[in-house]
Fold this sequence. Notes:
single chain; 257 residues
Amino acid sequence: MDHRDAQSYSVNVRMGNWVEETCLQSVVLDSTSEFLRYGEDAQLLCPDVRFPGWCDGAGGVALSCSTSDHNSELDGLGPGCTMTASPLTESCVRNCFKICGIGSSCEKGEPLKFGDTFAISPCVSSKPLFVAAVMPRLYAERGVSGHPVLKLVDAQDPYCRWTVAYWRKTMREKAEGLPVPNGARVVLKHNATNLNVAVETDFRIATFFGDEYEVTAHSIKDSGGHEKAQNIWEFVTSNKRPETDDDGTNNDTKTNK
């Protein structure tokens, strides 16, 4: 199956036309900025995780809205919609987001800085929605991995707040307060728990788009305390990937479960 053919991908999983036309609608990422900025459309890619059977030239998996929840609106998104890591990395509505500032120092168009607190919203939706790590309560269950899952909610609260740290642990203190370069590798942290956003490569969930990896708040580290590939992300705001000599490689940085 050609993963670039969204039509065949959706038909194979018997997805309704209304979902296909909205969630798989192309989003053009054309930022010319050196830095990630508030209010811009961006993808969140986990670049060193591979999905079996997929050979995307860019590689990795993309944080995506699953649209598999019964509360989804007619545009395919709604409160309770589960976030997944999808091998379908072509930029589209379901895998593009906006960084929303919290506070007066984070106005639209200003650079996002390491250490800033922000919210993440779908780039297109019929109502305000925010990515949150859902803590286990009476009405919320853990994911199949046993860790708190990421879902969309319709009101900002402490569980919708995020920050980024430079992926290299030894350089985090120096990077604090500096603008985040477009395409830089980062660790995406959940403020309320200090857990990292993780691709659960041992756990898949069924969506309208086929099986995809579960995404949770879960810090996955090696014996030296360094985050593994499942915790390393890139914010990408341009279809032209930036050139960098920092490829993010680390011991056990690539995985193909």
